Each structure stands twice: as structure tokens, then as C-alpha cells.
Amino acid sequence: MKFTLSWLLDHLDTLASLTEIVDTLTRVGLEVESVDDPSRKYDGFVVASVIEAKPHPNADRLKVCIVEAGGGPVQVVCGAPNARTGMKGVFSPVGTYIPGKKMTLAKGVIRGVESNGMLCSAAELELSDDHEGIIELAEDAPVGVAYARFAGLDDPVIDVAVTPNRPDATGVAGIARDLAAAGLGSLKTPAPKPLAGAFDCPTGVHLDFSPADRHLCPAFALRLVRGVTNGPSPEWMQKRLRAIGLRPISALVDITNYITFDRGRPLHVFDFAKVEGDLTVRRARPGESVLALDGKTYTLEESMVVIADKNGVESIAGIMGGEHSGCDEATRDVLIESALWDPANIAQTGRKLGIMTDARYRFERGVDPEFCVPGCDLATELVLSICGGEPSRIVVAGDPSPPRRSIPFPYGEVKRLLGVLIRRQEGEAILARLGFGVGDGTVVVPSWRPDVQVKADVVEQILRIAGVDRAPTAPLPRLDDGVAKPVLTLLQKRTRLAKRTLAALALREAVTWSFVSRTAAELFGGGARSLALANPIAVDLSDMRPSLVPGLVAAAERNARRALSDIALFEVGQVFLGPGENDQRVAAAAVRRGRAKADREGRHWSGGALVDVFDAKRDAMTVLSAFGVSPSAVQVLPGGPAFLHPGRAATLQLGPKTVIGWFGQLHPSALEALDAEGPIVAFEIILEAVPAPKARPTKAKPKLDRSDFMAVERDLAFVVDAGVRAGDIVRAAESAERSLVAKIGVFDVYQGDGLPEGSKSIAIHVILQPRDRTLTDAEIDAAMSKIVAEVSRRTGAALRS
Questions:
Q1: Backbone phi, then psi, for 415, in 5-degree steps?
Q2: What predicted TM-score, i.e. pTM, was given to this entire model?
Q3: How many C-beta neighbours within 10 Å does residue 774 have?
Q4: How confident is the model at residue 599 (pLDDT cuts 50, 70, 90)?
Q5: Which structural domains are found in the chain, ordered by start?
Q6: Mean pLDDT (whole number) for 670-693
């Protein structure tokens, strides 16, 4: 929601500075996203007088002008046909940035004549598209004064982030109301004057709905103003519309846009001459379409509400009008419409048609129903003052004034819900300034606050204006023994630790949508859609994500299409495995693509190989190690989910049944379904699935390079059945001599000539680290014998000769 400071001051009587206004807006919950001072755009531009304008000696269409801008005469070469002696214009000296040309002005020589500045057109200042001549100012324009100040272009533009529950803040008047309630001044919003009208409106209104559908259009007000002149809107209105990013069109259209932002009340105008018969508000019929004001033709569905006449659909209700009945310069009689629409239906229609307008933005949040008729009166008042004409009496269909909501509210709820005492007199004064009716134990909600439904909402309004800094500070609760309770849960600690660990592995954190497409949901959800959304925000965001990987793959692919093909991303966030209470889990996942291997990131002078499954394994095992899980305790079982490449994937398991995650290379068919190119490797670990570490003292083994005694290294090769896993051999070897074994790793796997059919050779590297003495040959042989025996007993392996 954008507005200018001067616009706000039309509704708020205050002496507060811009800084105070901005700080107060954020404090009361209307966060200011930016403040743009447009005068900075026109730094250096000044009002100047053309002392002399004579023909250029070497060019027929150029003139040599002597300009006085307050610092002495300056020579300028100008090609504008309206440049002449005695006129006032806008001068930009050398060094000024020209926004319309995206350049900084330099001293130049044009056809042999020196030019030391520029007389500017409106297009060069981006004030309009007019570039035929330079700007002409009034004769009394003060020479040397900054043009931004003279033209009123120094009005700061404030951009406020409006949350969906605050439809009242989609108008400048509503924002001023909050500031006044916060003590920053007094509200002075003028009330619209009711207009009786001189004649009956010739166009009737019919609400053609069944009793079950009457909520789709609770009320519809219409008035004819005849004999109008639809020229340009006043300069003050055009300035404000341009300041907030709207293009002035014509007086009638600009008036509706102005009221939309001024009061949060969208309106629409029809050219009466183009409307055939009465207006009917109804559901769209199968096959109907409309050419809208944006020049596009939209095919409508029965769920959508339209405004129609005998010619057919003239407007998509609450969203956009039709081209056929739109107003133009020839309009002489205008119908002004002010209606109420069902917020849910407007939102649904807008999403289906892919239309976002200022009207939809407000109607889908809920506009003030009591301002339906006054909004039409306000628009009529502006039309009469700007365009002239004669108004008819207003036609109203439906009920524009539903009863206000009354909430039982004993004031003790403030202390109970906040834990802070705000005196009753202060709290009730705040509610009154916000427009609430305060009675004995009851609060009546104003019509512009549909979000206030229960007692807690009323308390929120009091605290919002009084200030959240009123809440007292208190120490954290402590246990009986005086020890502070832990602030973070184990899951919160793991979430933070997983992020830091993955970032240390040269992975970049990504935050992706919690929604994925149906294809991705079925692919990563085991063929089923566990949580399909009833009202998705987009077709490709239709399901809650069962995995973090689809979002990361999509992010990696977007980077790849922008020439960042070697990329490594991670995310720690929620996944949704089903509708059950315990099916919402926190996962850590990462993807690597291209040559973004675990030991280096992105492009590298050495070229490097593509990522492989062992990069994903390293990432996963590093995270588990950070959680205090010993690598030897993790079972790496071949195979994984169906979206992984067979033979290049594994499941991570603790104990016989506890599956904690997986890693591997994504299958080509999975990449095709995700519209991505590989190779891409990934891992995912469910943080809650990893058991909490046991609280027991452990003795850490000394690091090899810090021991006072020499380590002993031996290689052992075993012949085993082809189905035996290397991890089983490693675990058996580690358990045989725990007091001496420091590290065991697999360095060779062989199948082929020299081995019995159906068998393979697995070679391991064993490091023995003594802690208190140097090992003798006999002790080394004994340890190795125990390892061989234990491996043979548990896996049926034989030492390879």
C-alpha cells in the first residue's frame, strides 16, 4: 500500500515528522517497507529563464540559448521547437543525471557550438511521454529554485506492508486512523455528503441469485451522472496517482482509482450509452467470455460472478470491467457502481483467471460494507466537481448495512491474556479512537474491521496501539535446584547444528516453498498424495511437500539455466508425510549438481569429475557425526526410494528397524519428472528419527597425529559371498578389538578371475593405536587374529591368500 505524505496529511492533523510517522506505523503493526523521496530523482534540476534564444549557426533545427538559473548566464544548445526568448523552463547543469535518458549530462560541443547543460522535456524527467518540446513554466516561476520543490515533486512516498487481516489499512484514511489512535495527531477524514439526486436512475439493478448464493453480492449501489465532460483529471490527482505507480487515464477512471486508495473502496464506472437495459448481477453462464479493460479475453466459469446487461457480460464482478462499456473521452453520461462482493469468491475467481487488480486486492480481504453507499456519494461528488453533470437518485439492491458484531468483553481479559495491566480508561480510549463502540462489558466492532471476531482480537488492538514494549521483562523460569531450564529443545538444537554443519561443507542454504506439484508429491511420497491442498495458490504448488529435495532440485535447475550449472544447496525445514498429528517432521537435505563436489565448490581450474553418490554420503554422514552418531553405528543398506538410481543409493538405518534417511543419485526418470538435468545427488535425514544421545560418560580415543605411540597399519583382504555387505565386515572388525582399533576403512572390492563363482574380495585397511605403550609383534599378531576370527564368524569370510 503506497501513499504520499501530503495525501496522509489530508486525513491526519499532525505536526509529527516523517521519521516519527514511519516509526509509529511500524510500531502499530503497519510495517513500512520503504520511504522514497522523489526529490532525489530531480537533484540538480532548477527553474531557469531563457534570456536569449537565437538560431544555431550550423544547424537549422537547433537554437543557441543563454539561460539564467541563478548562477550566471549559461550557454545551451537546444533542439526544442518551443524554445524562445523570455520563457521559463527546467534547466539541468553539467553533471546532472537525466532519468529519462539514463545518462549523466556532460559538457559537449554540438555542431561547433559549446553546450553547458540542457533544457528538459517532460519525457526526459519521466513526468509524461511528451518529448516534443521543453517544459514551459509560468511567468512567475522563481528562477534558481529547485524544480522538485516548485512543482511539488518533493512529496515522500511511503510503502506499507498490509497484512491480509487488515482490509481497513488498504486506504489512506484507515492508516491515518491508526496513527491518530496512537496519539500522533487527530483524524480529519471528511465524511461524504449524501446526495439526493435530481431524477430517477434509468438503469435498474437485479441480483439474480438463489437464496444460497445471496452472499455473493450482498449489496449493489448505482447512480447515473449525466452531462459530464471526461477530460484529464486535475494535476493534484495525477501527481498522487503517478507517485504510487498508477498511470492517469481520464478523470472518470482516475476518480475511481483515487477513491480505491484513499478510502479502500473500489468502484467502477460504465458508459451509460454503451449499456443496454438494466444491469443484472449473476453467476456466469457456460461458454461466456468478456473482453476486459486489459485487452485480454477471459473465458468464464459458473463459479464466477459477473455484471451483465442485454448485450451480455459487461464486467467481472469485483475484479475488472469490460472493454465494451468502458468510459472514454466521448463519455457524456456515466453510471457509477459501488458494490459488495464475497471475499472468497473474488479470490477464487482472480486466481482462476490469473488477474490481480487493486480492486481484487481489497475485495478479497473484505471492504467496509457501510461505506458502499457513501462511497458512491463520494465518487459522485468528485465527478460533479471535476467533470460537471447532474446526478440521479441512487439505486440500491440488497442490504449495504448489515448489523455490527458485538463481542462480550470484560476488561479483565486484557490482564489475563497479556500478563500486563493497561488501565481501563486508557484501553477503552484506544478502542474508541479505533472506531470501536465501548459499552458495559461489551465491545461493538466497527464495520471496517471484519478481522476482529473474538475477545483476543480486541485485546490485540489495545496492545498494538499501547505498544508491545509495555509487556514486562521477566527472568527465565528455573528448576528447584536453581539450574535454568533449557531454552532450546533437542530438535531446535539439531536444526541449528545441521544448518551450520552443511554450510561448513560449502553448501548454500536455500528456503523453498512448502508446496510442490502433484507429480513431485507422488514421486517423493511413495506414489501417493498425502496432503493435497483444497485451494492451492498455483497449479504447480498443489500439495504439501513430502520431501525437501524437489524444491532444492528446482532451485538448482533455475541456477543451471542461468549458467550456474555446478551448485550445492541445502535446506533444513518441515516435511509433511501424512495427515496425522505426528506426520509433520523436520528434515535436513542437500543436493549437489554438476561438478559441485564435496571437496570444492563450483568451477575449478582442475576441471574435476561430476558429483557422485559418495558426495551425498559424505554430506549425510557428516551431519550424523555432528549429532553425535558414530559412523560405525549407522547401517548403510543398499537401495533406497524409487526415485533414486539403483546401485547408486542407500538407506541409512540405526538398529534393525529405525530408518533415519537416505542418500544417492536421483534416477533419470525422476529428473525428467522434475524437468531437471543431472547428474544430481542428494541426501535427506529426518531429524526426529535420530535417537537422542545417551547421557553416559565416554572416553574419547586420541587422534592419531597426537599420540605418543606409533600407530600400526595393516591391510586384510577377505573372500566372501557376493551378497555380503562391506559395512558388515567393517563392523565385525571394529567389534573384535575395540581397545586398539582406531579406524577401519574399505579400500578395495574385487570380483572376477581368481575368485570362486558367486564370491568377491573386500579389502580393509586397519589402524591400531596403542594408548599406553608400543605394541610388540606378538600383540599385533594377536589383535589381527582376533579381527580375522570375528569377521569370519559373523560374515563367513575367509582370509584371502
A1: -70, -40
A2: 0.65
A3: 10
A4: low
A5: 2-37+156-187 (3.30.56.10), 40-150 (2.40.50.140), 205-398 (3.50.40.10), 406-470 (3.30.56.10), 490-689 (3.30.930.10), 705-799 (3.30.70.380)
A6: 91
